[in-house]
Amino acid sequence: MSQYVIVNNLVKKYGDLCAVDNLSISVNQGEIFGLLGPNGAGKSTTLSVLTTLSDFDKGEITIGAHNIRKDKMKIKQLIGMVPQDIAVYEHLTALENVKFFAALYGMRGNKLNASAKEALEFVGLSDRQNMKPKQMSGGMKRRLNIACGIAHAPKLIIMDEPTVGVDAQSREHILNSIKLLRDRGATVIYTSHYMQEVEEICDRIAIIDHGRLVACGTKAELVSLITDAQSVYIETKIPAAFDLDEYKKKQKLMPGVKAVAIEENTIRIDVSIDQNNITRLIEQFLSLNLPIINIKTEVPNLDTMFLTLTGHELR
Questions:
Q1: pTM of the model as a whole
Q2: What is the pLDDT of residue 276?
Q3: Residue 113 belongs to a domain with what CATH number?
Q4: Domain range for residue 237?
Q5: Which of 93, 96, 275, 306 yields a CA-CA distance of 20 to 30 A from 256?
């Protein structure tokens, strides 16, 4: 998979404040790339630089093989921005809003009209094209915001908190739309404070803090940075005469087993992620005539990973 965005040793200062401190990241073509960090971590500054809205002090950035300093105008044509603050005009209809923003990228005539209508259809607002934003719900405005950012068919779409304040139905529609954009070949950089969203749609995730990269990778790769174990919860029915202490001793002798805990009729076994112990655990239960009512595995979620890697919760 080729790299579409490459950031090398990016430095951006505001006076004595170093907002971005030698940040290096790369985003693969056709992936949804999550960019996470607490307030003040440097996310907004990084996005501002990538969208050519802000200059930077040091470093090198290429987008679609174009150098951001040498080919700024070309890069502007490649990018679609969906800002956190809804950027639409209340006095224009939905269709007029989308056409206005698409026209800024040089679209004209029949192509402009067709692309605007296609963008509205994509976000589920084709039947509201003559409605003005002041008549829309918050979720509909968010979807219109997205339509305005994608009507010119950008190769790179940057989405900054696109689901803030929307209802569950609109959030689901937006997330599905983002995945569809990726499936159509777009590259997406996505920021959010909703960890569940990031886990659901992002192919890889970068965590930054104090302007520096803390960690980057798939969820599984990030998990491996803080633990090499997963927990297996097996709900069963333990006979009164069953020797729990002896069972724990035998379990801990199994390769990869790190801990065993028993609470009522649920047994939790912590095992190494890189060893496939679940089949052996099931076979052992059956050999002991212990029924398996339910079984599930659990690894640390993104909230836990973020807290462990940065020392504080996402806010």
A1: 0.81
A2: 64
A3: 3.40.50.300
A4: 228-298
A5: 306
Residue 232 bridge partners (DSSP): 269, 297
d(CA 148, CA 119): 8
294-298 and 3-14: which strand pairing?
unpaired
> Which pLDDT score, from 0 to 100, does residue 165 have?
83
Task: Show the DSSP H helices in the chain as ranges.
Answer: 43-50, 72-78, 94-103, 109-122, 138-150, 168-183, 195-201, 219-226, 244-252, 278-287, 302-310
- The dihedral through the CA atoms of 176, 182, 186, 190 has a sign that is positive
Within-domain flag for 265: yes
Query: Domain holding 273: CATH number?
Result: 3.30.70.980
Tell me which residue of 8, 14, 5, 38 sits closest to 189, measured CA to CA.
Answer: 5
Mean pLDDT in runs of 10 for the chain (315 residues)? 93 95 96 92 93 95 95 93 91 96 93 95 93 92 94 95 87 92 95 89 94 91 79 88 85 82 86 74 84 85 77 63
| Assigned token pair, 67 | 């150098």
